UniProtKB/TrEMBL annotation:
Protein name as catalogued: Bifunctional protein FolD
One Pfam family hit: THF_DHG_CYH
Subunit architecture: Homodimer.
UniProt-listed Gene3D superfamilies: Leucine Dehydrogenase, chain A, domain 1, NAD(P)-binding Rossmann-like Domain
Membership in a protein family: Belongs to the tetrahydrofolate dehydrogenase/cyclohydrolase family.
Keyword Amino-acid biosynthesis part of the UniProt annotation: yes
Annotated InterPro entries: Aminoacid_DH-like_N_sf, NAD(P)-bd_dom_sf, THF_DH/CycHdrlase, THF_DH/CycHdrlase_cat_dom, THF_DH/CycHdrlase_CS, THF_DH/CycHdrlase_NAD-bd_dom
E.C. code: 1.5.1.5, 3.5.4.9
Record field: catalytic activity: (6R)-5,10-methenyltetrahydrofolate + H2O = (6R)-10-formyltetrahydrofolate + H(+); (6R)-5,10-methylene-5,6,7,8-tetrahydrofolate + NADP(+) = (6R)-5,10-methenyltetrahydrofolate + NADPH
Tetrahydrofolate dehydrogenase/cyclohydrolase catalytic domain sequence ranges: 10-125
Record pathway: One-carbon metabolism; tetrahydrofolate interconversion
Keyword check for Oxidoreductase: yes
PANTHER family: C-1-TETRAHYDROFOLATE SYNTHASE, CYTOPLASMIC, C-1-TETRAHYDROFOLATE SYNTHASE, CYTOPLASMIC-RELATED
């Protein structure tokens, strides 16, 4: 942070550590009672370097939390039908409690069809239509991991959402849209913005809580931030750069997430927490 920074840094690494510590304890307790270790299956199509790194990191974090991993790799040439078959098999395997399909998948694959092959009770990454509906209607289910992590981070920093204006820049089905639903459930007034939004900055400058999930490096600068706003940067671009121009935004915001060390650790923490919860439910230990 520069000398002119005024915003308080939202330390996702520290908050995530506490969540993982609890998940670790819960996994150990479940094993002590049932003899079963929660298991997260990861599926990777192709060999995209970033995706390979992410999967390995998730496997490493799982092991440290006392969660077993099963990894399935498919070649870049895999078809939608082949991927769906793998996900269906994992969904039917009682030894697997959570399933993560690393995304994005290669362009020729129908990603939505693949997501929908994941059994809702094992959708610990919150990517199925069932999970989205549960988030939208406030019913039991698993939150999309990154949006869920964002909400936990806001809670950890006691950010009041009721009656506040939240602006989400981005409308992807696993980030922008679900985080808006979760904010709405906490009584925020939510505005979605996207590539077709006219005069974007006029809307972002109204935001008490601004969530950047657009996938463009340093897309939102300080002049697009309302003084005193809470800024959540959910982007991650090459070079460890988020969707927010940190230095300029931090001079205006009251709270801001760094990249890395903000939303990213929270995503993995929620994924692990939900894997343990999925195992507990499937074993009838509510």
């Amino acid at each position: 942070m520069t000398e002119t920074t005024s915003a308080v840094l939202m330390d996702g690494t520290a908050v995530a550590r506490r969540i993982v510590e609890q998940a670790t304890a819960d996994a150990a307790a479940l094993k002590a009672v049932t003899g079963v270790t929660p298991c997260l299956a990861t599926v990777l199509v192709g060999a995209d370097p970033a995706s390979v790194t992410y999967v390995r990191m998730k496997q490493s974090r799982s092991a440290k939390a006392g969660i077993d991993s099963r990894h399935v790799e498919l070649p870049e040439s895999a078809t939608t039908a082949e991927l769906v078959a793998v996900l269906t098999e994992l969904s039917e395997d009682s030894r697997v409690h959570g399933i993560l399909l690393q995304h994005p998948v290669p362009a020729h694959i129908d990603e939505r069809a693949a997501f929908e092959a994941i059994a809702p009770e094992k959708d610990v990454d919150g990517v199925t239509m069932h999970s989205f509906a549960a988030m939208a209607f406030g019913e039991p289910g698993f939150a999309s991991a990154t949006p869920g992590g964002i909400m936990r981070l806001l809670e950890a920093y006691s950010v009041e959402l009721a009656g506040k204006h939240a602006v989400v820049v981005g409308r992807s089905p696993i980030l922008g849209k679900p985080v808006g639903m979760l904010l709405l459930a906490r009584d925020a007034t939510v505005t979605y913005c996207h590539s077709k939004t006219a005069d974007l900055a006029s809307l972002t400058r109204q935001a008490d809580v601004l969530v950047a999930a657009v996938g463009k490096p340093r897309f939102l600068t300080g002049d697009a931030v309302k003084p005193g706003a809470v800024v959540i940067d959910a982007g991650y671009n090459p070079g460890n750069v988020g969707d927010v121009d940190f230095d300029s935004a931090a001079r205006t915001a009251s709270l801001i997430t760094p990249v890395p060390g903000g939303v990213g650790p929270m995503t993995i923490a929620v994924l692990l927490e939900q894997t343990v919860a999925a195992a507990r439910r499937q074993l009838g230990r509510r």
